[in-house]
Amino acid sequence: MKRIVIAITGASAMQLGERSIQLLLENDKSVDLILSKGAYEVAKSERNINIPVEPKAQSEFWRNKLRVESGDLNCYRWNDHSASIASGSHKTKGMVIVPCSMGTLGRIASGFSLDLIERCADVHLKENRPLIISPRESPFNLIHIENIKRVATAGAIIVPPIPAWYTNPKSIEDIIDFIVVRLFDSLGEDLDNIKRWVGPNK
């Protein structure tokens, strides 16, 4: 089974990345996970969560927090450039960056890889594999828009974390699930254990 790379950067809305991990593992998928250095800081400031940096400890942390035993999860340090996922010879189904900061997006757009997330994104573009980017910023300035255009032209799929009200969400969790489903629809992943919109109630 080809693996899916999930990257969480230091932008607000880490809950989207967390729910992505949970749903993939519940669906018995294989996940390679990278958190940027900034993501650890956001977890502390926004959610009062201390996520371990050491890969094995982090894998145990996520399994305990998400209460999931299925699937396969490998965690990587943000600066581990020797990781297998930094090479095009490491086969993956695709990569999802959620949420994606404007700094990360800008470096991907310029081909300038400072950390493992940016290197993996570069690998997916050069290998013509799916790269799904969920940029989290508002409002966009012209530089942001130009960077989005540049990565889209290079082959990335841009899926902003925009909620839908036609689904009549009853909770924040409903909104998060809608956004995550749309992310993985773009990757061709059908996720079970999640309610999908099937049309207006008659």
Automatic annotation (TrEMBL):
It is an enzyme of class 2 (transferase). SUPFAM superfamilies: Homo-oligomeric flavin-containing Cys decarboxylases, HFCD. Signal peptide: none annotated. FMN binds at G10, A11, S12, S36, S101, M102, G103, T104, R136. Its EC number is 2.5.1.129. Residues 2-186 form the Flavoprotein domain. One of its GO terms (molecular function) is flavin prenyltransferase activity. Dimethylallyl phosphate binds at Y166, R182. Belongs to the UbiX/PAD1 family. HAMAP family: ubiX_pad. This is Flavin prenyltransferase UbiX.
